[in-house]
Design brief:
- By secondary structure, the protein is mainly alpha-helical.
- Helix content is 61%, strand content 3%.
- It contains eight helices and two strands.
- The chain has a two-stranded antiparallel sheet with strand order 1-2.
Amino acid sequence: MRRRLLIQVMAIAALPLFAAPAFTAGEGGGGGGDTPKCKKGEVWDKKLKKCVTPKYGMLDDDNIYEAGHDLAMAGRYDEAIAVLSLAANKQDPRILNYLGYSHRHSGRITVGLGYYEEALRINPDYTLVREYLGEAHLQMGDLAGAREQLSEIEKRTGKGSREYGMLAQQIDHFMRS
């Protein structure tokens, strides 16, 4: 408990160094939206409809998720991790998913796998996690693991889903290279 509190305090103290603009993007999407950019050290608070300096407990988990997601999609993985780590609900599959995504893209694939597995333990039908988990398997050269996730996505959403299409495309690219 003491260690977690220390980590949270350190994350809060460092957050102005890491916080970044928030952009609206749909689940798993990389596109922008109509949320204004915030200056460095601030995040968008959708309830207040303005940029704010984040403090522990100030933003709800939805705001934390959105800011963390946007940072991850912008390639600012360590910043995303710092923000997502402030979430009160450490078992939110969305938070776990983007912690996994950010760690994986920072080169810590096995750490990312742990977050993905935890998210799927909580919600086995979360197909975006399965897409990202399949991509992680490809990064490790595990084609069978990626295909297993593709099959799981197909069972849940069919071949027409965005997640199925994205992972199928990644598998195809992997096989060609």
